């Protein structure tokens, strides 16, 4: 499996972010071809030193890295990526990786 993790930094208006993310962005992202599973954080995001500057973390699961690349080359993937400008006022970092069970 491969994962795309999106780390959303604290937005200017957390309530507006949460409403838009739940009602608009998630339904849009769920249309991305090849998406196998979609998880989001629930509650505060912490570090070992205390609260994080992150507001929400999303983990999108795909079969492999090629599937992630194909997904975001699709019309649905491009629309989802473009949608970030509509609500992620704090910015977002993304990382992708393949995983294995150890």
Distance between the termini: 13 Å
| Count of separate structural domains | 1
User: How much of the polypeptide forms β-strand, as a percent range?
Assistant: 25-35%
- Stretches where pLDDT falls below 50 for ≥5 residues? none
Architecture, CATH level 2? 2-Layer Sandwich
CATH class: Alpha Beta
Major sheet: 4 strands, antiparallel
User: What is the overall shape?
Assistant: globular
Structural class by sheet pairing and helices:
alpha+beta
* Strand order, sheet with most strands: 2-5-1-6
What is the CATH T-level topology? Answer: Alpha-Beta Plaits
The number of distinct β-strands equals: 6
Percent helix: 25-40%
Radius of gyration: 14 Å
The average pLDDT value, as a whole number, equals 96
Number of helices: 3
H/E series, N to C?
A: EHEEEEHHE
Brief summary of the model shown:
The protein is an alpha+beta fold and 102 residues long. 33% of the residues lie in helices and 31% in strands.
3D architecture notes:
There is one protein chain. The chain is α+β, with helices and mostly antiparallel strands and 102 residues long. The protein has a single domain, classed as Alpha-Beta Plaits (2-Layer Sandwich), CATH 3.30.70. It is 33% helix and 31% strand. The protein has three helices and six strands; from the N terminus they run E-H-E-E-E-E-H-H-E. The strands form two sheets. The chain has a four-stranded antiparallel sheet. The model has no long low-confidence stretch (mean pLDDT 96).
């Amino acid at each position: 499996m491969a994962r795309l993790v999106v780390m959303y930094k604290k937005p200017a208006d957390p309530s507006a972010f949460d409403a838009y993310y739940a009602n608009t962005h998630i339904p849009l992202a769920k249309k991305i071809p090849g998406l196998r599973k979609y998880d989001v954080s629930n509650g505060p995001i912490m570090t070992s030193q205390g609260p994080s500057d992150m507001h929400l973390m999303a983990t999108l699961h795909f079969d492999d890295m090629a599937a992630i690349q194909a997904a975001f080359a699709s019309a649905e993937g491009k629309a989802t990526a473009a949608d970030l400008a509509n609500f992620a006022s704090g910015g977002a970092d993304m990382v992708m990786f393949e995983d294995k069970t150890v």
